[in-house]
Design a protein that fits this description.
By secondary structure, the chain is an alpha/beta fold. It folds into two domains: 110 residues, Aspartate Aminotransferase, domain 1 (Alpha-Beta Complex); 219 residues, 3-Layer(aba) Sandwich (Aspartate Aminotransferase, domain 2), CATH 3.40.640.10. Helices cover 36% and strands 13% of the residues. It has eleven helices and twelve strands. A seven-stranded mixed beta sheet has the order 2-8-7-6-5-3-4, sandwiched between helices. It has a three-stranded antiparallel beta sheet with strand order 9-10-12. The chain has a two-stranded parallel ribbon with strand order 1-11. Helix 3 packs parallel to helix 8, helix 4 crosses helix 7 and helix 9 runs parallel beside helix 11. The chain starts with a helix and ends with a helix. Bound molecules: pyridoxal-5'-phosphate. Pyridoxal-5'-phosphate (PLP) binds next to helix 4.
Length: 354
């Protein structure tokens, strides 16, 4: 490639997703998917899909789907925005709401995609360090900025902040948009802050069907905000790609959203297995962050967690390790089934006894 050609091309450092290994007997605990299949209603709906409908562009209003989401989280249908996974929704939010010369704020240890979008859209940013115990420095977010994005529970720590502390950040920043990324909120005790979109016109709450709804494959995410912000988001989407929720996704997300019983059963099982995993790791000498999500973040003194990560991979067990400051001796382990987690614990024990 010649240099004149090369200088016209974008030069970016992209987000690196976890591996998607395939194969017999592989235990995949590296991308926070659910170990359980989607609701049986999803399977029923798939069987009954009228395939001729697929010749048409999708419905881009999706009123019934917005109503179900609204009912589940206590907001109105006109306070809902839908997208192709919450990564897309978050990216559109960055474009729509972070348009200042002042830096956008997010924690130093957090979802690594925020930095990538900031770079992609040329948005200045500043990282606010978490405290030593990886809890949020609430005060650090009480200053003027170009906007704020915080996941609650946080990733990859799994730690959940009190809703009153999150509200303090929202009410203390009425001049900028505060995005709360609730990818893991269904696994926490605290519940969602979504109802507050009625109270604060600067709050955006983002959620996904990839984790607690067992539907990472359909790519469905959404945001709650007051109708004024929703209209701006729709404007940004319609300046890029109008049809981000495809016909199949719309149908399957609707069915999943209506099946509260199955959803609660899966979340309940994951919470139970999470308690078991945290207890076993503690017994093996790990320091375990208190998790409110479907993964556990842990470290062990005098042990190379990177070496353990490589060892587990050799055993066909995939977990996540980040080569980042402050957390490069931690592992992030997705909560799988009880059977998967016992196999993991057996392998870790074997590694430690070598
Ligand atoms: C998984 C995750 C997302 C992205 O979810 P998708 O809806 O699958 O795009 C967003 N934010 C956080 C913090 C996540 O962990």
């Amino acid at each position: 490639m010649n240099s004149r050609l090369k200088e016209k091309l974008i030069d970016i450092e992209p987000y690196v997703p976890g591996e998607q290994p395939k194969g017999e007997g592989i235990i995949k605990l590296n991308t926070n998917e659910s170990p359980y299949p989607p609701s049986p209603r999803v399977s029923e709906a798939l069987k009954n899909i009228n395939y001729t409908e697929l010749k048409l562009y999708p419905d881009f209003v999706c009123t019934e789907l917005k109503e179900v989401l609204g009912e589940n989280y206590g907001v109105r249908a006109d306070e809902v925005f839908l997208g192709n996974g919450s990564d897309e929704v978050l990216a559109l939010c960055f474009k729509a709401f972070f348009n200042s010369d002042m830096p956008v704020l997010f924690p130093d240890i957090t979802y690594s995609f925020y930095k990538v979008w900031a770079g992609f859209f040329n948005i200045p940013y500043e990282e606010v360090p978490l405290r030593r115990d990886f809890t949020l420095d609430t005060e650090g977010f009480l200053r003027s900025s170009g906007g704020i994005v915080i996941p609650n529970p946080n990733a990859p720590t799994g730690i959940c902040e009190r809703l009153s502390d999150i509200e303090k950040i929202i009410s203390g920043n009425r001049d900028s948009v505060v995005i709360i990324d609730e990818a893991y909120v269904d696994f926490s005790d605290n519940g969602s802050i979504a109802r507050l979109v009625n109270k604060y016109d600067n709050l955006v709450v983002v959620q996904t069907y990839s984790k607690s709804r067992n539907l990472a494959g359909i790519r469905f995410g959404y945001a709650f905000a007051n109708p004024g912000l929703i209209r701006i988001l729709e404007g940004v989407r319609n300046s890029f790609n109008s049809y981000t929720v495809n016909t199949l996704t719309k149908i399957l997300a609707y069915e999943s959203g209506r099946d509260r019983g199955y959803f609660e059963m899966c979340v309940g099982k994951i919470r139970k297995t999470r308690a078991y995993l945290m207890e076993e790791l503690s017994e093996l000498g790990f320091d375990v962050c208190p998790s409110s999500s479907n993964f556990v973040f842990a470290t062990r003194a005098d042990t190379s967690c990177k070496a353990l990560f490589e060892y587990l991979k050799g055993e066909g067990i995939y977990v996540r390790h980040f080569d980042s400051p402050r957390i490069d001796n931690y592992l992030r382990i997705t909560v799988g089934t009880d059977r998967e987690i016992s196999a993991l614990i057996d392998s870790i024990r074997h590694f430690l006894n070598k």
